[in-house]
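Hi everyone, sorry if this is the wrong subforum. Our group has a chain we'd like a structural model of before ordering constructs, and none of us has done structure prediction before. Sequence below.
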Amino acid sequence: MILAKINRPHLVIITGMSGAGKTQAVRALEDSGFFCIDNLPPVFVPKFIELLNESSNHLDKVALVMDIRGGKFFQALEETLAFLNNNYPYEMLFLDASDEALVRRFKETRRKHPLLAEQGVLEGIIEERKRLEPLRGLASKIIDTSELTPKQLKQQVVELFADEKKAKIVITVVSFGYKYGIPLDADLVMDVRFLPNPFYVKELKSLTGEDERVQSYVLSSPETGVFVEKFAEMLDFLIPYYIKEGKTHLVVAIGCTGGQHRSVTLANKINSIIKNSDYKVIITHRDIKKSVGKNSC
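Answer:
Right subforum, don't worry. Here is the predicted structure as tokens:
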């Protein structure tokens, strides 16, 4: 069935791990003017799209949430995506989180996992991750919600989908601490632990990379200058090829030991360099508050 190519709303498919924040994401889109349907069986999507095209009440933005709660119906999602690939443009958001974060959330809410509930939460998470791995690879945008508050997740979703300005690519630059793990949604990971560490300077230890004194210390070293120049050149080379390949969201993760000094400074610096009228750049410091005042470098 070939659908008419008129009055097509912006279509977003939301899926991902149970407990990763799909409810918060769809609420953020609803608040931004999206027409949203939660837990829609994938087999109904072709009919829904047909009705959408025939309706006189034109919708500009539509979001459909489809996940493992659909049971056997969910198995048809890959076929549904194949249908959309041939007939209707869409974006897919995959929400992910670490096993530890998901277990904690299920225990806090006292909810059962949709899969293998009788065997425990962790077993259900492992099985779900296995089933969703192929789907994750098809997503145009991935958000790691492990360390995000509901407010931060809402902000990221709005910046990715609800901004009226259309950019060729959305680039998220995230600083992180290796001691807390690499971001799950990272496309490019850069380790800056080789740079001089402000942690060992008494007057800088308790500060962060947001402070000018820390920035001056990190950026004044010769090796930092060379690194920034070469890394910026690499990004300048890579980004057009990512765009050519059809990628719409690129996550650049910059890590140091604790995510407090060097990674924050360098993430801010790279953010200022790659800003471009054709790109939308989002900056986030995942672990900046975790190590402040603690014995961490």
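For your construct planning: The two ends are 59 Å apart (CA to CA). The chain has two domains: 10-162, 169-285.
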